[in-house]
Amino acid sequence: MLYREAGDFKTSYAADQQTFPIKSERYLFWAFMAFTFLVVPFIADDYWVNSILVPLLVWSMVALGLNILTGYCGQVSLGTGGFMAVGAFACYKLMTGFPELNIFIVILLSGAVTAGVGVLFGLPSLRIKGFYLAVATLAAQFFLVWMFNKFAWFYNYSASGQITAPTRTVFGIEVTGPSAPPWAAYLACLVLVFVFAWVARNLTRGRIGRSWMAMRDMDIAAEIMGVSPLYAKLSAFAISSFYIGMGGAMLFSLYLGAAEVTEAFGIEKSFSALFMVIIGGLGSILGSFLGAAFIVLFPVLLKNIMVGYFGWPTDLAAHFQIMIVGGLIIFFLIVEPHGLAQLWRLTKEKLRLWPFPY
Amino acid sequence: MNAPVDSKSLRAAEQFQLSAHQDDIAKGDVLLKVENVSLSFGGVKAISDISFDVRKGEIRAIIGPNGAGKTSMLNVINGFYHPQIGTITYRGQPRHAMRSTEAARQGISRTFQNIALFKGMSTLDNIMTGRITLQKRNVFWQALWHGPAMREDIEHRRAVEHIIDFLEIQAIRHTPVGRLPYGLQKRVELGRALAAEPALLLLDEPMAGMNLEEKEDMSRFILDVNDQFGTTIALIEHDMGVVMDISDRVVVLDYGRKIGDGTPDEVSKNQDVIDAYLGVPHDE
């Protein structure tokens, strides 16, 4: 009953193209945002922040990036893990090379470096499409991981080949490093994700977003309408890699604190990012969050139920968890191939008329 | 969703007039000239030695039996194919190997024989895409959205709403085009081509697969576009009744060659044209 659009008239085009066209939805959104910014940092304990909230935010950032490329522009990429590694190593080199630089600026610059690398590996997309492009981006994944292992300059010649985030502060509060309080990392992630989700929404609703979607839906017609494939595809690669690079930098500096390239940024990371955008919903900002939530949170939830509640042995629970998540992925793809975001959209359509559908 | 009624934009829409791309070519002068154009794919000659012109403000029909090279001709005009021989002069400028994005920027817009809409996008977004070459704000303004990018978008929205009114598709504004019936999709595609405010509008079989009523609507839209916006139109069509009624001049192709050119009356009396349509064997 709360979700009503009756009496909510649109009197301008600006009002018609709002992100949340229905008033109650808008209020709900801002209430939720206020909750995440003002309440969660005080009530969340270390376990919640470290194993649920921060990974969720980091992976949302990555999923947003991949969704721009795959969901909006239609270019399949399996290089996500490699691009995250670029972001993480750029972050490490910047943090150690310029100790006085603010961590937010470091993360933005890491994104920019990754954008450059993304454009480079996006060049084949001008010639090849679909599965073939996916295989070409796979080359980026393997090449980048190999490169960060091979050249010791990237990890500052440390004996273990690991990179470790030094301590950095914002407004005198430690955000990275071993002694940083978890809520600080959470807030830093939240600010970045909030701002860049908003930017992603802005980009996808305007001219550049339309040129990406046109390229995705019918590339020849798009070209004849005046969309330059070079610009549309490479800008999608650049912006997508920018997000993924920031995600990688956040994963390394704010979440893990230390990383080893093959382990943290392997091919399975590329796949799980792709699963996130497919399950969450291709071409949907909300879908990126829902997909990330599904892939990140569901295993944790299952583990807690099976080990914590039923008291099963951990190894058994781990296997069950893989099977159940796999089964659910198939279930969701059959029920709604357009992802969780579409399910949410349909629910809202029903809610608009509930309880009197006629 | 409620249809937006913006009193300010309504007033603006009243004053607003879509117009063809501005240039200094007078009505009736040659806008596009095709001279001795030949196009072949390997050993297949799609077009051989064709010359004709399109005058500003007219409706020019290109007709011919299947496989005559009509669509190839349109593809040559909008830069999708590059002819091996011959010159194309557009607005008095000869051009060579132009890319189709460049042609779009110079005011050549088109629809397709098999609908080529962006299926995942709404009607509104499809038509807005037609104005992509007219929108100028760069990525940074768009990332901020609130401010110049939004103002620009709304300004273009106003023009697009004018087209939506013109084509009488207000009710499907927010519907994804993949869900629309065929006749409406054809109409949305015309809207998308019109949104670019083209100087030269190329229509590839705008009435294929339509029933009588839809054909009448589409003919009315084509005549109105020509009349109200001053848009020059080159169209391919198989329905001879429609072609003879709405076009000013007709060029007839057969097997990649031009066999007739003139007013509908002249063409329909031309013996070669009658032979081509009745399938009289060619004496090669």
SSE arrangement:
The complex is a heterodimer of chains A (358) and B (284).
Chain A lengths: L12 H4 L6 H21 L2 H27 L7 H18 L5 H20 L7 H21 L12 E2 L3 E3 L2 E4 L5 H24 L1 H11 L1 H6 L4 H28 L1 E2 L1 H4 L2 H14 L4 H25 L4 H22 L3 H15 L5
Antiparallel strand pairs in A: 1-4, 2-3
Helix pairs in contact in A: 2-7, 3-7, 3-10, 3-12, 3-13, 4-5, 4-6, 4-10, 5-10, 7-8, 7-10, 8-10, 12-13, 12-15, 13-14, 13-15
Chain B lengths: L6 H9 L14 E12 L2 E12 L3 E5 L6 H8 L7 E6 L2 E3 L4 H6 L2 E3 L12 H7 L9 H6 L3 H19 L15 H14 L4 E5 L7 H18 L2 E5 L3 H7 L2 E6 L2 E6 L1 H6 L1 H8 L6
Helix pairs in contact in B: 4-7
Q: What does it look like?
A:
The complex is a heterodimer of chains A (358) and B (284). With 358 residues, chain A is mostly helical. Chain A is 73% helix and 3% strand. Chain A has a domain at 45-265. Chain B contains 11 helices and 10 strands. With 284 residues, chain B is α/β, with parallel strands linked by helices. Chain B has a domain at 26-104 and 238-284: P-loop containing nucleotide triphosphate hydrolases (Rossmann fold, 3-Layer(aba) Sandwich). Chain B has helices at residues 7-15, 70-77, 100-105, 123-129, 139-144, 148-166, 182-195, 212-229, 240-246, 264-269, 271-278, and strands at residues 30-41, 44-55, 59-63, 85-90, 93-95, 108-110, 200-204, 232-236, 249-254, 257-262. At the A-B interface, helix 1, helix 7, helix 8 and helix 9 of A face helix 1, helix 3, helix 4, helix 5 and helix 6 of B.
